[in-house]
Design goal:
The chain is α+β, with helices and mostly antiparallel strands. It has a single domain, classed as Jelly Rolls (Sandwich), CATH 2.60.120. It contains 2 helices and 13 strands. A 6-stranded antiparallel sheet has the order 1-3-4-12-7-10, covered by helices on one side. Strands 9-8-11 form a 3-stranded antiparallel sheet, with no helix packed on it. The chain has a two-stranded antiparallel sheet with strand order 2-5. Strand 8 and strand 9 form a beta hairpin. The longest helix is centred in the N-terminal third of the chain and has 25 residues.
Length: 166
């Protein structure tokens, strides 16, 4: 129940201002803005592209930016041993862990364990990776803003040696 509540709360907090902004922009003059509801299951899940991920990864885009907002929200699920490639974000990224156990690592730093309820802030331009532990999958919400239409700069894959290192 806690992970469902966390997911709903995080999505509501991040997306609500964006939806309101979009609704205001679309409302006719003198009319109250209309709420926008995206029904669960209307956007298909996608497989994480092999050039950016190692192992099975599922990406469920919960919100794509519209109107003046730049924030997107995706639920990313990593199977045990799966991980992202090294990457950076021009405006940073917040990860909100909703299930399982995973790792996140900044270049030159040590791996940090992440568990449900943890919120990780990856500052702009910091090279990092994140994913599942070797034995346990993990799901997190990835909240990312785009700068000039781009929200990520992908780099080389995390090697097996880098992944296994402490």
């Amino acid at each position: 129940m806690a992970s469902v509540s966390l997911t709903a709360l995080a999505t509501l907090l991040v997306v609500s201002s964006s939806i309101v902004s979009t609704a205001h922009a679309q409302a006719p003059a003198g009319k109250a803005p209309a709420m926008v509801v995206q029904r669960n299951g209307t956007v298909p899940s996608a497989k994480g592209p092999e050039q950016f991920f190692s192992g099975p990864v599922r990406v469920d885009m919960l919100y794509q930016p519209q109107g003046p907002t730049r924030a997107s929200v995706g639920a990313v699920t990593f199977e045990p041993g799966s991980r992202s490639a090294w990457h950076t974000h021009p405006l940073g990224q917040a990860l909100i862990v909703t299930a399982g156990t995973g790792w996140v690592q900044e270049e030159g730093g040590t791996k940090i364990e992440m568990r449900p309820g943890d919120v990780i802030w990856c500052p702009p331009g910091i090279k990092h990776w994140h994913g599942a532990t070797a034995t346990t999958g993990v799901t997190h919400l990835a909240v990312t803003e785009a700068l000039d239409g781009k929200n990520v700069q992908w780099m080389e894959k995390v090697s097996d040696e880098q992944y296994a290192a402490r």
